[in-house]
Design a protein that fits this description.
Layout: H1 2-20, H2 25-29, E1 32-33, H3 39-42, E2 50-59, E3 64-72, E4 83-88, H4 97-103, E5 107-109, E6 115-117, E7 127-132, H5 149-166, E8 174-180, H6 183-199, E9 207-213, H7 219-223, H8 226-232, H9 243-263, H10 276-288, E10 300-302, E11 305-310, H11 323-330, H12 333-338, H13 352-357, H14 370-374, E12 378-384, H15 392-401, E13 403-404, E14 407-408, E15 417-421, E16 424-432, E17 435-440, H16 447-450, H17 452-462, E18 467-472, E19 478-484, H18 489-504, H19 508-513, H20 522-528, H21 532-567, H22 581-595, H23 604-617
Parallel strand pairs: 4-7, 4-8, 8-9, 9-12, 12-17, 15-19
Antiparallel strand pairs: 1-2, 2-3, 3-7, 5-6, 10-11, 13-14, 15-16, 16-17, 18-19
Bound molecules: 2-acetamido-2-deoxy-beta-D-glucopyranose.
2-acetamido-2-deoxy-beta-D-glucopyranose (NAG) binds at residues 375-378, 405, 433-434.
Length: 667
């Protein structure tokens, strides 16, 4: 009996390292993250994810490196197996470390600059990789910056190629690409690139679905929603002294949209992705609604959550409050070394020079790519309903005008579904022909920031892991609902029900499908195997062979365990009395990492790469005349250490002039 227990111990102890350190062992180990401030103190052992991070080289010729941070749950639920989620924040130029440390990732940063646990992390729903892109964003760096959306697509495909060289075991996994805000431009471009790549690729990428939160997909169309949204939210009334000026700007934007619509071609029109005229509507509304009477900090509506206030002219750029801890955390020297940066870099939430370079003036807005993508895969568009800048009214209006899979818009006669998560209403859903729209109640521009656990269930909505039910409502009517559950609960219930069914009705036809599941009843399994005797004899021979192997592995394992135990650094091991798998695994990883540490920080070669990239990135806007200029002078809202999503709002001085309201009803 003892050898059997030992066998299990050895297998459990070494199964994960073998899985994660296979052929690509060497490539991977330079990216292993084995410590972070607070990791072993604040995070329960079972919740410590397996992590890889670093600056992956894409193009040596211009030193382009993309930074990524990958999180793998060590106790995966079955649904999370074989699933890879890539997460992108927007900007352009805003780091996906927002996503990692304030939204969908497993950590938050506390006031002491340490990681703490986010119970609603998406990495429980699939391996998740946060990628800083395009180059120059966050910890990514390069000699050159992107200017157009198709470059984002090319370079992300290159990133994937490099990523799968390091993680070849992920190649067959289902891919979900998720993100927010300006990533509403990136993600469809990347998806389009992947689908094209797949047409003549030997190993196609298994792209499954896209999830875009508060996406900036059809900029001008969405800008037309600022006025109706602000009125509906009670931010502004027609009695406002600037009302006429705002209407005029709104109408100017409407004319641009009409012009593009009537052109009805697939050419890039002036200001199509970046229209100073359309974006100015929001700037005007924020300006017109500023109010110092509540104090300086309350002077402006937070454009990412209208229920909050901020100082003027920041209007939300100081939000979310976690930036106060996240920014210094990522700029700790030891954290940058823990994250395996070969070129340390000052981290800022959004890099203005990336945004300034990225004008996308020769790119069609991503909305044009949606119909083609929807022919092949599903897209989920979700909106936190308190966001102004990429608000849900804009998304819904954009969908109304969109024709995909043979029809225009959602069927207006059909009532939206209620989204019920863990027995409470979380929003409403419209879904048809591969496109799903979700309005998420009580949440901002960053849905996973406000509602981490609820936001994770968006993955269930995107992967068909929900029930459709009729709900009783007052008056005896019923309402249709999509119902999601806490992590893993639905699949667990399904399994349980299947197991019960099998016990009650042992039909061979049913059980044969599930013969590998442990719950197969004995009566049905004998019914299937008419040649059971021959089968068993073969099995026993194999068993004996395995037993021999086990003994060999056992001896070897004990030796390795002992030597790794002797060399394990005590700080890394929060060893419980159980001496469980993770302790062994982490010690093993760390040992390899230390032995092969050929990436010391501050070595002179890396320093020069870094300083070059750094000076370029912090050089400000001067000397950037080779980039597409803006149509008018930018007056940015606020001096920003960071800036923010869709952050270049242009306020143009305009004559105040009364104007009749255009025929644009507020919904
Ligand atoms: C929808 O997506 C699936 C893949 O999920 C695809 O097979 C199908 O052709 C798409 N189109 C329509 C109209 O449903």
């Amino acid at each position: 009996m003892l050898p059997i227990y030992l066998f299990y111990f050895i297998v459990v102890a070494f199964a994960n390292p073998f899985k994660h350190f296979g052929r690509s062992n060497d490539a991977k180990k330079q990216f292993l993250v084995s410590k972070l401030p607070g990791l072993y103190e604040n995070i329960p052992e079972d919740d410590i994810p397996l992590m890889f991070a670093g600056q992956l080289e894409l193009y040596p010729e211009n030193k382009t490196h993309y930074f990524y941070w990958k999180f793998i749950d060590q106790n995966k639920i079955p649904e999370a197996e074989n699933r890879t989620i890539f997460w992108l924040n927007g900007g352009p130029g805003c780091s996906s470390m927002d996503g990692a440390l304030m939204e969908a990732g497993p950590f938050r940063i506390n006031d002491n600059g340490e990681v703490t646990l986010n119970e609603g992390s998406w990495h429980k729903s699939g391996d998740i990789i946060f990628v800083d892109q395009p180059s120059g964003t966050g910890f990514s760096y390069s000699d050159v910056f992107d200017e157009e959306l198709y470059q984002v697509s090319w370079h992300f495909l290159r990133f994937l190629e490099k990523y799968y060289e390091v993680f070849p075991e992920d190649l067959g996994n289902e891919i979900y690409i998720a993100g927010e805000s300006y990533a509403g431009q990136y993600i469809p471009y990347i998806a389009n690139g992947i689908l094209n790549h797949n047409k003549n690729a030997e190993v196609p990428y298994n792209l499954k679905s896209l999830l875009i939160g508060n996406g900036w997909i059809s900029p001008n169309e969405q800008s037309l929603s600022y006025l109706p949204y602000s009125v509906q939210a009670g931010m502004i009334k027609p009695s406002n002294p600037r009302w006429g000026q705002i209407l005029k700007q709104h109408e100017t934007c409407q004319k641009i949209v009409d012009k593009i619509d009537t052109a009805n071609d697939d050419h890039v029109h002036e200001f199509e992705v970046v229209s100073t005229q359309c974006e100015a509507v929001l700037g005007l509304i924020l300006e017109a609604t500023q109010d110092d009477s509540l104090g300086r900090d309350q002077a402006c509506y937070n454009m990412y959550d209208y229920t909050l206030k901020d100082s003027y002219p920041s209007c939300g750029m100081n939000w979310p409050p976690d930036l106060k801890t996240v920014t210094p955390f990522l700029n700790q020297e030891n954290v940058q070394s823990d994250l395996n940066l070969i070129a340390p870099k000052h981290w800022r939430e959004c890099t203005g020079s990336v945004a300034r370079s990225f004008r996308a003036s020769n790119s069609l807005p991503a909305i044009h790519l949606l119909p083609g993508i929807l022919e092949e895969i599903e897209i989920v568009l979700f909106n936190g309903n308190r966001d102004v800048i990429c608000n849900y009214i804009g998304t819904e209006n954009m969908i109304k005008k969109l024709t995909w899979n043979g029809k225009k818009g959602f069927d207006e006669d059909i009532e939206p579904y209620t989204w019920l998560h863990n027995d409470s209403t979380r929003g409403y859903i419209k879904s048809a022909r591969n496109l799903t729209f979700i309005n998420v109640f009580d949440s901002s521009h960053m849905v996973p920031f406000d509602l981490p656990e609820v936001s994770r269930a968006l993955m269930d909505l995107a992967s068909n892991n929900f029930d459709e039910k009729d709900l009783e409502v007052v008056g005896g009517n019923t309402k249709k609902a999509f119902v999601t559950y806490p992590l893993g609960e639905r699949q667990a219930k399904i399994k349980e029900a299947e197991a019960q069914d099998q016990d009650e009705v042992p039909l061979p036809s049913v059980t044969s499908d599930n013969s590998t599941s442990s719950s197969t009843s004995s009566s049905s399994s004998t019914a299937i195997n008419s040649d059971a005797g021959e089968h068993e004899e073969k099995t026993s021979r194999v068993t004996r062979l395995i037993q021999l192997l086990v003994i060999a592995i056992l001896i070897w394992g004990v030796v390795v365990l002992y030597s790794s135990y002797k060399s394990r650094p005590s700080s890394i091991i929060k060893s419980g009395p159980s001496g469980r798998k993770k302790n062994v695994q982490w010690a093993d990883q760390l040992r390899q990492f230390q032995e092969d540490d050929d990436f010391p920080l501050n070595n002179s070669k890396n320093q020069s790469i870094f300083s070059k990239a750094f000076s370029k990135l912090t050089g400000g806007s001067d000397g950037r005349g080779n980039y597409a200029p803006t149509a008018s002078e930018d007056i940015e809202l606020g001096d920003r250490p960071s800036g923010h999503e869709v952050d270049d709002f242009i306020i143009e001085s305009d004559d105040e002039e009364d104007h009749q309201p255009p025929a644009k009803p507020a919904k």
